[in-house]
Fold this protein.
Amino acid sequence: MKKLGTLALFTLFATNVFADGQVFYRYGWSSLSVDRGGQTFTDTQNATGAGKNDGKSGKGIGAGLDLKLMNCPLFPENSLIGEIFVDYNRFSHKNVANAINVVTDAATGLTLPKTGEVSVSELAVVIAPKYRFDGLGKFHPWIIPAGVAFMVNSPPSNTSNYLDVGYHLGAGAEYMIIKELSVGIDYRYTIGSGDPQLKVKYSSLGANLGINF
């Protein structure tokens, strides 16, 4: 009897947590609210006149995991989902003054090539609740009202900080082609808490492919 009770509890837990789950892959177009040109590690503050790494628009690729947590108590046809999302975006990539070459040249008196390809990018790991509207057949809109983003800024800020934590929100919709496969589109916005030298804010519009389980 005890074994039957344990099995029933496990079955209920597995049904609530793992039903209607999804692994998804995303490709998107992103944009910084404010470019990072003129900073120490992005282009050495354009000290050599080689130009600024000030691009704002870029592309990104990401992947995520959605796990159903529960049905909404007030609207049982809708679901509360837990999302884990990893997102990489590159906003600017230019041949500019490279900080390490400039510093080494000044310290040693050697003449080194001062320019090089430098990328301005962002890696974010997001943990967020997702509210999904499931009462519309194969069409499932959703919103993320508030998520936490753990961010890696590359290059680092003028004070050499490269780690940050921020706020993440989004909205989107997906369409179930077959039971095992969905396609979707979404808009996301991430705001870093930032240090005095850097506060990254960027938006992203993306399309995704989901494998349902």
